[in-house]
Structure formats: C-alpha cells, structure tokens
C-alpha cells in the first residue's frame, strides 16, 4: 500500500528539526519534488522482505515459573529439534534472549521489548540445529545486555546457582546459569564488554569470546557493531571447541565478518601445554578492585601451566588499560546511535536487517523511563558526546583502537597467550530492591576492568574456572592472537585435564 505523504505543514516542521526554515510556498515546491522518491517507497512497501527460512518446527513456548525456574534463568522454554544426525546430536542448547528464534518470543531482558516475536532464526541457531542440537529455550539476559551483573534483567534478577541471592554475572546471565546448573548441555552468549566471560567466570563454566567476526552475529540484536561478539558457553572445554566448530565461519549476511579464519578446534585439545609461551599480563593484576584472594587463585593456576611445560613470565601491555578506556566513547556513543536512535539495527552496513525488530524497538521512546539505570547512564554519556562534541570522541577512539590492537599484537608476537583474572572479585550479593541509582549502576559495571579491552581489540579470550573463593568460582582468562582460538583451547584443555578446579 502507499506510504503516507506529509503535508506542507508537516514538511515545514520537519525542516525545522533539521535546522532549516521553509516558507509555505517552498515547502509546497519541495513536496512536489519528493513525490518520485515516495513512489519508490511505495514500490519497496509492496515487495516481500528477504527473510531467511526456518526449517525446523517449533512451538512458541512460555516462561516457566516457581521451581521450574528457581534461578530466573529461563526467559522462555520451548523445543526445536534439529537434524537427526550431526556433531551435536542429542545435545540441548539455550540461546541468550537477544538471539532470534523464529516464532519464539525475544525480550532481550527488557520490558519495553516484551511481546516481540522474531520471524527468522539467527545464523548461530540454524547452524546448531543443522548440527543436530535441540534448542530447548531462551535464557534470560540483562536489560538490553547493558550489565555485568544479573540484577538488571526484567522481570527479575538471575541468581547464581552456587549461592541464591548472589549475582550470576551478566549480561549472558541465564546462559551461564543453565549450563552450570546442568539444565542444558550448551548455551550461546553475547559479549560486548565481557558478557560471555563474566557470567561464565562467576558460575564456574567455560566461556569464549571469539575473534571479532569469527561467529556471525546475524539475527542477534546488536549493541554496537564493532563490539558485537557471540560465543559458546559450556561445562567443559571439548564442548566449547565443538560448538565453535559448528558456529564459526562467514554466512554472507554479516558485514562484521571479513574472511574469518576457521579451524578444526577440537583437534587442538590433546596437544598439551608443553612449549607454550604464556605472558602474565601485569596490568590485569593492577585493578583497584582486585581481590587478593582471586589474584592468588589465578597465580596458582598459572603456576600449574608452568608445571605442564609452558614457559611463563610477566609482561606489561599498556594497550590493555588503553583499550579499556576506549570502551566508553565507542560503547556509549555507538550504542546510543545504533541500538537506541537506530532502533536496534542502525544504518550504513550491508547486513540482514530485522525490520519487525526495528519497528517494535522504536517504541522504547514511549517507555524510556522504564529503561534500566545501567542503560540510561550509558545513553547519557553517549548522547552528551554526540551533541556536545559531534561524535569526535567516538571517531578518535576508533582510530586509537588500532593502536590498542597493535599493542596486544606486539605482546602476542612474543607469547602464544596472555593470562590474567577474568573478573577482579567473586560473585557478590544482588543489590537490595529499591537501592540507590549509584548502587544499581555500580554493581552492573564494576567488574569490566579486564574483559572490555578484548572487545575493543577483537582478540579472542576465554575464561576457565580455576578455583573457589568462599565457595564461589574464580575465573582465569586466556587471550590469544586473532583467529588463534585453537591455541586457547590447547591450553585450556591441558589445564582442565590436570586438576579438578573445584578442589583448588
């Protein structure tokens, strides 16, 4: 059908919002010139959209309650059976609830998106199903994924399976909990500042943020395209490597992917750590909020790598701290433009757009007060940078990000891996209901000191459990060269085979 044409009065008002003044006569003349463009809009409106097909039957499902969802980790339970055979046959998977699964609600942790139902499957969902997996539901995630804590999800906080009332980490909170609790075999998370690795560390599982662009992000609601990553979350290293084999590689729909280099990751698992060169990243142990008990656990684990034949020594990588600082202008201004002003999709990239998501998420403006405080503070920073400084700090930070990547690359030319604590402290209690904005936001963002950097530089990073502090898991993070996930898996598998981390 024909799109609605503006009146001359509406065009005058529109011009005013563009800082222009039109007379009624000028508006009428411009309106006549615009009609041929609007005719093209009519044509687009009449044509069917390009929507990837969904090949596996499923039901919409529903959110379980009570004892069926004791950690609040399920956003929705359903069942989508994949291929009859494949490397993941018989395995159950949960998808973070910002990942599209056709016909199944997707809320992305936010009440403002409640009721949205995607029309197609994300590429990672299709690949998992083609590999024989059964997708059994959507895992709760934090409010538009803007939190490293798990108290920001709508409608309720997600609880750590090791201790009720404690944070599971975020934003892939439910994904980590469901794997750690044994309710699913595998889960997919997303990572823009640590959102795979933080919850994996606090729940005692394995979580990988792959090289930027290795895993297609098609069908996953973005935050900021240069930071967006999706990765596997599993109870052991082999499952993690197997999942990455299934999910990795170009899909032809995601412009984040530039000739991604895939590998047979499971083949690296038996190589051992002997001969690996590991650099202990000094800056990773210099965070102001680093718990000394966590640092000790990680250093003890590093010593175990040395016992397995790896050479280990301290290295300073100033780019680590620089990359962490770059996250604020890139993350805040980028998400404000793409996820919020751009209605969850943004402009200027040749990817698969979810038109229905764009239409639905545009409604956040009518419910803006319901947005989480952690998202609001990022939007306030981003909007101020855009309005007061015209986006120059976003642009400059993206330029400087190449310097940060080069700093990491230089260190990784001397070492196979870098190692540091994933999160500076163990899981903490949820903030009290009705707490101050300061407490709410601080508890959402206080743990990003070591994880945000690799989202800026794009290097792969994996957390593996390496002990307990007060009965709560501690994570050690390995960082590798771009597309060197196999080296990370090689080291992680050697460590996993050498000890039961729960005894450390």
Provide a descriptive summary of the structure in words:
By secondary structure, the protein is α/β, with parallel strands linked by helices. It folds into two domains: 8-46, no CATH class; 66-503, Amidase signature (AS) enzymes, CATH 3.90.1300.10. The chain is built from 14 helices and 13 strands. It has helices at 8-17, 24-46, 123-130, 173-180, 197-203, 237-247, 292-307, 318-341, 355-361, 373-389, 392-414, 437-445, 452-457, 485-498, and strands at 74-81, 92-96, 134-139, 159-160, 163-167, 186-191, 206-209, 229-234, 277-281, 311-315, 417-421, 461-469, 472-480. Strands 1-3-2-6-8-7-12-13-11-9-10 form an eleven-stranded mixed sheet, with helices on both faces. Helix 3 links the parallel strand 2 and strand 3. Helix 8 (318-341) crosses helix 10. The mean pLDDT is 97.
Quick structural gist:
The chain has 504 residues and is of the alpha/beta class. It is 36% helix and 15% strand.
Secondary structure: elements and pairs:
Blueprint: H1 8-17, H2 24-46, E1 74-81, E2 92-96, H3 123-130, E3 134-139, E4 159-160, E5 163-167, H4 173-180, E6 186-191, H5 197-203, E7 206-209, E8 229-234, H6 237-247, E9 277-281, H7 292-307, E10 311-315, H8 318-341, H9 355-361, H10 373-389, H11 392-414, E11 417-421, H12 437-445, H13 452-457, E12 461-469, E13 472-480, H14 485-498
Parallel strand pairs: 2-3, 2-6, 9-10, 9-11
Antiparallel strand pairs: 1-3, 4-5, 6-8, 7-8, 7-12, 11-13, 12-13
